[in-house]
Design brief:
GO molecular function: metal ion binding; molybdate ion binding; tungstate binding
Shape: elongated
Largest sheet: 6 strands, mixed
Organism: Jannaschia donghaensis
Keywords: Metal-binding, Molybdenum, Signal
Number of strands: 11
CATH class of the largest domain: Alpha Beta
Strand content: 15-25%
Family: Belongs to the bacterial solute-binding protein ModA family.
Pfam families: SBP_bac_11
CATH superfamily of the largest domain: Periplasmic binding protein-like II
Distance between the termini: 39 Å
CATH architecture of the largest domain: 3-Layer(aba) Sandwich
C-alpha cells in the first residue's frame, strides 16, 4: 500500500496568502512576552493579544513543544493537545501546571460547491475522485492525530491512508482546500470560519479524543501568568471564532 505523502509546506512556501504560519523564531523585545502557540489558535489569539506586548510564534504543537524543551526563549506555550503538554511537563519545562484555554471540533473541509459528504468510504472516495485528502501529520500535528483516530473509528483509515497528503500544521491543510489543491481536508471547526471553504461533514465527537487546548507558563515572569489567565478568560473570543464551548 502506498504511503501518505508528507509535505513541509512552510519550507516549500506553498501556503495561501493570509494562511501562512510562522516558524517559532519571532522577533521579541527585551520587555515583551514571547508566546508559542498552535497554528489553529491564530485567528482568535491575534485578537486576544490586542493591547499586550507579545511576540507570537505559530506552528505545529509537536514542533513548538520540542523547541521549548530544547531551550527556546518562550514565556507561554499554547498547544492543541494535552499529550504534548504532558510531555513538556515531564521534561521539566513548565513553571506552573497547565490549564485548559479552549476546545474545538473536527470537521471535513471542502470547496463550497462540494456540499455535504457522508462519512462513508464510498462517499469520500467519490468526492475525492482522482485527487487526495489533506490532514496534519499524525506524528507531530494534533489535528492529524485526531483525524487518524476518527478515520480509524469510522473504519475509513485503511481505504484512505494511501490517498492522503500530510502537512506540518492544520492551517496548511486549510490552505490546500482553499486553493483547490485538494477536494477535502480534516481541520478544526474554527479553521473553516470566515475562510470561504465549506464544511462537508463533522466528525462525531465520540470518534476521537476530546480536542482540548492546554496553556502553560514556561518562564518565571509574572506577566506570563497574567497573560495566560487573560487567554483562559477569553472564551467569548474563542466562541466567536468557531471554537467549541
Amino acid at each position: 500500500m502506498a504511503r501518505p505523502i508528507r509535505f513541509d509546506v512552510t519550507r516549500r512556501g506553498v501556503l495561501a496568502a493570509g494562511l501562512a504560519t510562522a516558524v517559532a523564531r519571532p522577533s521579541w523585545s527585551a520587555d515583551g512576552l514571547t508566546v508559542f502557540a498552535a497554528a489553529s489558535l491564530k485567528p482568535a489569539l491575534d485578537e486576544i493579544v490586542d493591547g499586550w506586548d507579545v511576540a507570537l510564534a505559530y506552528g505545529g504543537s509537536g514542533t513548538l513543544a520540542r523547541q521549548v524543551a530544547s531551550g527556546a526563549p518562550a514565556d507561554v506555550i499554547l498547544l492543541a493537545a494535552t499529550d504534548w503538554m504532558d510531555w513538556l511537563s515531564g521534561q521539566g519545562a513548565l513553571t506552573r501546571p497547565p490549564m485548559t484555554v479552549a476546545r474545538n471540533r473536527l470537521v471535513l473541509a471542502a470547496a463550497p460547491d462540494v456540499g455535504a459528504v457522508p462519512l462513508s468510504r464510498a462517499a469520500i472516495v467519490a468526492a475525492l475522485g482522482h485527487g487526495r485528502m489533506a490532514m496534519g501529520d499524525p506524528m507531530s500535528v494534533p489535528a492529524g492525530r485526531y483525524a487518524q483516530q476518527a478515520l480509524e473509528t469510522l473504519g475509513l483509515w485503511e481505504a484512505l491512508s494511501d490517498r492522503l497528503i500530510l502537512t506540518n500544521d492544520v492551517r496548511a491543510v486549510l490552505a490546500y482546500v482553499a486553493r483547490g489543491d485538494v477536494t477535502l481536508g480534516a481541520v478544526y471547526g474554527s479553521d473553516a470560519v470566515g475562510t470561504g471553504v465549506g464544511i462537508a461533514a463533522q466528525f462525531p465527537a465520540s470518534s476521537h479524543a476530546p480536542i482540548v487546548y492546554p496553556g502553560a507558563v514556561v518562564s518565571d515572569r509574572p506577566e506570563a501568568v497574567a497573560f495566560l489567565d487573560h487567554v483562559a478568560a477569553s472564551a467569548h473570543v474563542f466562541a466567536a471564532h468557531g471554537f467549541a464551548a
